[in-house]
């Protein structure tokens, strides 16, 4: 099966998922992001002309503030023209199909689409549909993938831990419904992290999670022991319906990250969260705002990583 | 009209014929096999040199989309597709719009099909009014109108009391009840098998126990009520095992599988191929192997096309939103032959599953070429490869997981009641 993300030269054509991407591609994106960081931090150059004249369309069929904003900032720092479309679910109710929307935007000479959609596979569908010179970035599709989030997480880990091959990483929370978790798992295993753990009650784990190359824990006090990185996931409020979980309180007691639980991890463990956080549900404020938290740096790195992804796809040096 | 199909290789499983024989047809019936009957004057010759001559195929599940879904397909287009696929008899599920729960609808459908003069159509009536799972339909009236069995199609029947009553009532008249086992709570919004692929792709999943729990309930109720039971579209290894055990315990039941599920698994979904969005979901390779074994040992009696034409737009959507279903009428023969070849069985073993066995399930004296039987015949080239592509399909539905693939075996002539209703372009 051809990987739809790569062109026939093995170069990145679309970024749809971290699954199936070779480690050198992931590393080169992280390296490129690092180069943007040093420029923005060191010489205070906020803009580069790399994507001057290119049109990037952020099409969000699902609401998001943070992801859309960081994509917008990243595109602007690359000097691209950015158009934001918050389509929500309303266009579907007007009868326009996803691909009709895309065709219309193609006719407006889009060079790149950044897509978020509530359905798994939406970005693949668009990537398959558009002309070969157009690039698609998946900014989150259903439960499937959120590759730029995973890449910025990898960037964060590398920033603080330098290497991947000696790490023990725990991902905690709603693995079943999480596109972030899936993308993190593939990225971590591809980059050589020897031990990836997932910690969740059985109602929040997909069947055969171990086949993804992770160790499954149900007890947080065991799962956190001696880990270098704790990656928390957001718990959607609607999980209390449909008999997935009894209450936010019980969830917090057994799967919320508190200072007491965090001491089980290594002393220098870092705590990550893709945001937005539910304080007191999956994470205690004292941890979120604590010395081991790298949650805000994640957001900053996200801009550099998204710049790196866009410029890589555009094929500019 | 007196027709002689000559120089062909005749396969007639019921009469244990598998060799070169000529077939003689008169007045719509088989007049003789081998040599011409006394006084037979051939008026038309069909040269079947290099071809196989078999009973016309019988398909247990073909959605013709009438009434109500004519934008997806029409009776005309799908009847053309049926005979192009060598199918001479087909049963259509009741999930039309409105559902087949009124004798008038059934009569109209049968009338329309007769006018078209292609394959023989046997509607399966709705088991409950509107397929809503609450009230019984007028089964006896529907049977008088032409319904051959009663079914819920893919609609849920969650109330087990209603299910038991429906079986009891059907059993009163000796009607057959066809059910596809699927627990609707466990299925909910699921679109793919609860396994490796759904986990990887983040697709809402349907566990195997959705099939086995419903199947256990159905088997138990069939045992209680003594109804004639047919299990539709079995999909899992555990499901096959339950059917096998029930048969061994003496329960009278039959079972079919869709041709897609005989050959495909969840892996074929690849990167969200909406053509593989099917009901029931494609399951694991292990499940598929168990379906093969079930066909071999007779736990599964028949293969059906589960023909469900979907218009192109409804498939150009993200996987879960794309409409489930695939076109199948024209693929039934090659896929059944493929199964026989893969299982190192004679082609006749594949043909039994799409001729004689489905005829038995339907309670029809059909699916064979005995002297005196209706001359429903499928003449096909078993060796030729053809590419499945939209232009090669007569069905209005062009969506199938097999699109772009090469399949072996293609129909050349189809006769229904001794009338040539289809001949392929290469034979014109």
Supply the key terms:
heterodimer, A: 317 residues, alpha/beta, globular, B: 428 residues, 8-stranded parallel sheet, 14 helices
What does this structure look like?
The complex is a heterodimer of chains A (317) and B (428). The longest helix of chain A has 20 residues, at 23-42. In chain A, helix 7 (179-190) links the parallel strand 5 and strand 6. Helices cover 38% and strands 14% of the residues of chain A. The model of chain A has no long low-confidence stretch (mean pLDDT 93). Chain A contains 12 helices and 9 strands. By secondary structure, chain B is of the alpha/beta class. Chain B has helices at 75-84, 103-116, 139-145, 160-173, 184-187, 196-201, 209-225, 237-248, 259-263, 285-297, 312-315, 332-342, 347-352, 356-362; strands at residues 2-6, 9-12, 17-20, 23-26, 29-33, 44-47, 52-55, 57-59, 87-92, 120-126, 149-151, 176-179, 192-193, 205-206, 228-231, 253-258, 302-304, 377-387, 406-416, 419-423. In chain B, the strands form 4 sheets. An 8-stranded parallel β-sheet of chain B has the order 8-9-10-11-12-15-16-17, with helices on both faces. In chain B, strand 11 (149-151), helix 4 and strand 12 (176-179) form a beta-alpha-beta unit. In chain B, helix 2 packs parallel to helix 3 (139-145), helix 7 runs parallel beside helix 8 (237-248) and helix 8 packs parallel to helix 10 (285-297). Chain B starts with a strand and ends in a 5-residue tail after the last strand. Chain A binds chain B through residues 1, 4, 19, 97-99, 117, 119-122, 124-125, 129, 141-145, 179, 182, 206-209, 211-212, and chain B through 194-196, 198-205, 207, 270-272, 274, 313, 316-321.
Write a short abstract of this structure.
The complex is a heterodimer of chains A (317) and B (428). Chain A is built from 12 helices and 9 strands.
Write the layout of secondary structure elements.
The complex is a heterodimer of chains A (317) and B (428).
Chain A: H1 23-42, E1 55-60, H2 66-77, E2 81-86, H3 90-93, H4 98-107, E3 112-117, H5 122-129, E4 135-141, H6 147-161, E5 168-172, H7 179-190, E6 195-199, E7 215-217, H8 220-223, E8 229-232, H9 248-255, H10 259-262, E9 270-272, H11 285-288, H12 295-314
Parallel strand pairs in A: 1-2, 1-3, 3-4, 5-6, 5-8, 6-7, 8-9
Chain B: E1 2-6, E2 9-12, E3 17-20, E4 23-26, E5 29-33, E6 44-47, E7 52-55, E8 57-59, H1 75-84, E9 87-92, H2 103-116, E10 120-126, H3 139-145, E11 149-151, H4 160-173, E12 176-179, H5 184-187, E13 192-193, H6 196-201, E14 205-206, H7 209-225, E15 228-231, H8 237-248, E16 253-258, H9 259-263, H10 285-297, E17 302-304, H11 312-315, H12 332-342, H13 347-352, H14 356-362, E18 377-387, E19 406-416, E20 419-423
Parallel strand pairs in B: 1-6, 2-7, 8-9, 9-10, 10-11, 11-12, 12-15, 13-14, 15-16, 16-17
Antiparallel strand pairs in B: 1-4, 2-3, 4-5, 7-18, 18-19, 19-20
Helix pairs in contact in B: 2-3, 4-7, 7-8, 8-10
């Amino acid at each position: 099966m051809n990987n739809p993300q790569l062109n026939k030269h093995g170069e990145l054509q679309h970024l749809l998922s971290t699954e199936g991407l070779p480690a050198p591609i992931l590393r080169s994106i992280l390296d490129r992001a690092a180069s943007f960081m040093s420029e923005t931090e060191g010489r205070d150059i906020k803009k580069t002309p790399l994507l001057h004249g290119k049109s990037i369309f952020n099409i969000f069929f699902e609401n998001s503030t943070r992801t859309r904003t960081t994509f917008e900032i990243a595109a602007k720092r690359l000097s691209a023209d950015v158009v934001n479309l918050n389509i929500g679910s309303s266009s579907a109710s007007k009868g326009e199909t996803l691909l009709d929307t895309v065709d219309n935007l193609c006719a407006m000479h889009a060079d790149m689409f950044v897509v978020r959609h509530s359905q798994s596979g939406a970005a693949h569908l668009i990537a398959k549909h558009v002309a070969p010179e157009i690039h698609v970035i998946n900014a989150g599709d259903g439960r499937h993938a959120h590759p730029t989030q995973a890449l910025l997480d990898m960037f964060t880990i590398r920033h603080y831990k330098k290497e991947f091959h000696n790490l023990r990483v725990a991902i905690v929370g709603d693995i079943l419904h999480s596109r972030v978790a899936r993308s993190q798992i593939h990225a971590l295993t591809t980059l050589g992290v020897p031990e990836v753990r997932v910690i969740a009650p059985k109602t929040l784990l997909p069947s055969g999670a171990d086949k993804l190359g992770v160790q499954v824990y149900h007890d947080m006090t065991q799962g956190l022991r001696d880990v270098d990185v704790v990656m928390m996931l957001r718990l959607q409020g609607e999980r209390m319906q449909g008999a997935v979980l009894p209450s936010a309180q019980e969830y917090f007691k057994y799967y919320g990250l508190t200072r007491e639980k965090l001491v089980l991890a290594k002393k220098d463990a870092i705590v990550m969260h893709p945001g937005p956080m539910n304080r007191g549900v999956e994470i205690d404020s004292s941890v979120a705002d604590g010395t081991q938290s790298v949650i805000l740096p994640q957001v900053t790195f996200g801009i550099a990583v998204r710049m790196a992804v866009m410029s890589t796809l555009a094929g500019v040096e | 009209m007196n027709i002689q199909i000559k120089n062909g290789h005749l396969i007639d499983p019921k009469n244990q014929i598998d060799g070169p024989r000529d077939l003689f047809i008169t007045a719509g019936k088989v007049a003789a096999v081998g040599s011409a009957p006394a006084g037979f004057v051939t008026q038309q010759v069909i040269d079947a040199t290099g071809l196989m001559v078999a009973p016309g195929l019988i398909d247990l599940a073909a959605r013709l989309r009438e009434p109500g879904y004519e934008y997806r397909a029409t009776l005309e287009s799908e009847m053309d597709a049926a005979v192009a696929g060598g199918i001479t008899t087909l049963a259509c599920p009741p999930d039309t719009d409105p559902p087949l729960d009124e004798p008038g609808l059934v009569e109209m459908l049968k009338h329309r099909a007769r006018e078209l003069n292609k394959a023989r159509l046997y509607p399966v009536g709705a088991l409950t009014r509107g397929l809503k799972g609450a009230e019984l339909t007028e089964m006896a009236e529907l049977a008088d109108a032409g319904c051959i069995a009663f079914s819920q199609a893919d609609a849920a029947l969650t109330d087990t009391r209603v299910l038991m009553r429906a079986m009891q009532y059907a059993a009163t008249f000796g009607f057959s009840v066809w059910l596809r086992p699927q627990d609707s709570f466990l299925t909910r919004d699921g679109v793919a098998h609860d396994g490796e692929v759904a986990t990887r792709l983040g697709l809402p999943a349907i566990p195997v126990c959705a099939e086995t729990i419903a199947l256990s309930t159905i088997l138990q109720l069939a045992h209680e009520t003594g109804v004639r039971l047919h299990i539709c579209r079995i999909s899992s290894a555990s499901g096959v095992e339950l059917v096998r055990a029930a048969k061994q315990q003496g329960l009278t039941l039959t079972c079919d599988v869709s041709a897609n599920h005989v050959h495909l698994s969840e892996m074929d979904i690849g990167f969200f191929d909406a053509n593989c969005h099917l009901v029931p979901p494609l399951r694991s390779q292990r499940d598929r192997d168990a379906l093969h074994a079930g066909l071999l040992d007779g736990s599964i009696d028949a293969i059906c096309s589960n023909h469900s034409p979907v218009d192109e737009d409804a498939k150009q959507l993200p996987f879960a939103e794309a409409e489930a279903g695939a076109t199948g009428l024209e693929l039934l023969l090659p896929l059944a032959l493929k199964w026989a070849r893969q299982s190192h069985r004679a082609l006749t073993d594949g043909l039994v599953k799409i001729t004689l066995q489905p005829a038995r399930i339907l309670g029809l004296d059909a699916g064979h070429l005995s002297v005196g039987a209706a001359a429903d015949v499928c003449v096909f080239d078993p060796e030729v490869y053809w590419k499945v592509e939209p232009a090669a399909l007569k069905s209005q539905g062009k969506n199938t997981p097999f699109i772009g693939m090469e399949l072996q075996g293609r129909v050349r002539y189809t006769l229904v009641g001794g009338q040539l209703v289809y001949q392929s372009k290469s034979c014109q």
